[in-house]
Amino acid sequence: MHCPKCSHIMAQITYESITVDRCTNCRGMWFDHLEAEKLKRVRGSEKIDSGLSRTGESYDTIKDIACPRCSVPMTQAEDPGKELSYETCSKCRGIFLDAGEFKEFKHDKSILDFLKKFL
Ligand SMILES: [Zn+2]
Ligand SMILES: [Zn+2]
After folding, report:
1. What pTM was estimated for this model as a whole?
2. Which of 36, 42, 63, 91 sits between 20 and 30 A of 69, alpha carbons compared?
3. What is the whole-number distance in angstroms between the Cα of residue 116 and the centre of ligand 1?
C-alpha cells in the first residue's frame, strides 16, 4: 500500500495483534475501520506513532487525498472538542492520521479515564 499523502511505501506494523500501516517516509498511519478505536484501548500503543508531531503538522495541510484502499476521495473529519483533524473514507471507513495524531487521539481518552476515577 502507498501513502495517500506522500506516495511512499507503507509498512505493516502489528501491536498486540492489531495490524496498522505506517508510512516509511512521513510516518502517517492508516487504520482500517475501528482499528484506531481498538488500538486506543491498548496500553502502550502510542509507541507505534513514532513520527514527529512537527512532521505530521506539515502533512496535515495536505487534505486532498484518496483512500489508499478504495481510491475514492477521503473526507475531512474533526474530533469534537479537539484540534485534531484527520481524513476518513466514507466507503471502507478507514482513517488516516498524520504523525503524532494517534498520540493525541489516544491521549484524550486517557484523560477521560483519569477523570472518571474521581467521579
Ligand atoms: Zn507518507
Ligand atoms: Zn476506503
Report:
1. 0.86
2. 42
3. 36
